[in-house]
Amino acid sequence: MASGEKTAMAAGSTNLAGVKVWDIALRLFHWSLVLLVATATITGFLAAEQWLDLHVAAGIGIGVLLIFRVIWGFAGSYYARFASFFFTPGQVAEHLRETLKGKAGRYIGHNPAGALMVFALLGVLTALGVSGFIVLGGQENEGALAAFVNYQSGKTARNIHEILAFLLLAMIGAHLAGVIMESILSRENLVRAMITGRKHVKAERVPGITDESPIVWRAPLILALIILIAAPVYQVMANYPASGFIQMKANAAWASECGDCHIAYHPSLLPRSSWRQIMAGLEDHFGEDASLDKETKDQITAFLNEYASERWDSEAANELRRTDAQKPLEITASPYWKQRHRDIAAEIFKRKAIGSKGNCLACHKDAANGRFADEEISIPE
Ligand code: HEC
Ligand code: HEC
Q1: For residue 267, how many C-alpha atoms fall within 13 Å in the half-sphere facing its CB?
Q2: pLDDT tens digits along 184-222
Q3: Mutation test of ligand 2: which of 268, 364, 369 has the most ligand atoms closer than 8 Å to its C-beta?
């Protein structure tokens, strides 16, 4: 039992070369996790849109590590196994009380407070991964859940994802504080222990398995198995058509007539009422005469009506449905459009390769299909 391993040793037993506590797989897990969480944190907080690919890649990496850690919690070496650091709430409380009094016992593996933190970190990271994939699928129509989550759920998940991210930062802070405190109290550099795997305690007082070698060979096998199973499952799920997009039969009249003076704006970028007004006022269309014969006009009106933003569940359609009350005909006047482009200076839109705000295609390579994915954005020089 976990409590039995408490070896309330006098501090200062740095006499030996040390005993192996953290096996190599656990240490690699730990430092890979640090690296990937740092990557996800930086890309997430600083530039979620531009670095989405890297952010998601880090998230996938963390997911693989978490699955590995759970399996390793049962199949790893002694101190990696959950059973070796599973404490009751009473034990955790007692440990904290003793720590405050300065007479907490020493643990070879995780102490009760550290163990609780490990479980909490694994839990919050799992919740971050799950909510992240819901955001990716719902809001961006990408990833394994693109076909299964709608935009609103993605938006809700985004709020949860962000709260969890702050919670994680706070927990990492507490974890570091705990490591520093325990390092001082036990005169054992715990960071170094997580690098070398060794702690300097009297060998005869160390319970359980201390020789990792017979077990560690399982680690690459487990990792390979996870990837072998998870990759095809992810691929199959990601191959389902994204739920935000419907099959659109393009209309030749629309493409040529409405793509004459500017790009043919994807029908999902405005609601039905806006398209109806645009089509009813072509004689004076933003100061230009864009009038059409009745047959062509009816055909285009029907097409725009059929595929207006109400039909789609993409990010652009959901957000651009809300037009500006004074200028309901202008995509670029909508609150969302203005908010997303507020950092782009007016001079940039005047660049030769762009020309105007309305030339979506200059910066959004996928403007023609209404997707407006983050990875397809690039502002030409
Ligand atoms: C004769 C040229 C001409 C034709 C043809 C034309 N437009 Fe326009 N359109 C303009 C101009 C000029 C503007 C003002 C904004 C700009 O300069 O891009 C505009 C703006 C728009 C906008 C607002 C874009 C924004 O900045 O938010 C929409 C939507 C639009 N047009 C739809 C259509 C549709 C639908 C058709 C086809 C029925 C069409 N246009 C055909 C010239 C044209
Ligand atoms: C000068 C380049 C430029 C032009 C022109 C432009 N955009 Fe953008 N757009 C951007 C950039 C850059 C971003 C990302 C802003 C950010 O980081 O939040 C963006 C973001 C967006 C987004 C949000 C994408 C997402 O998933 O977060 C949508 C939707 C969008 N633009 C639609 C349009 C439409 C519609 C037009 C044309 C009417 C347009 N944009 C014209 C540069 C441009």
Answers
A1: 25
A2: 888 889 999 999 988 876 544 455 555 556 788 899 999
A3: 364
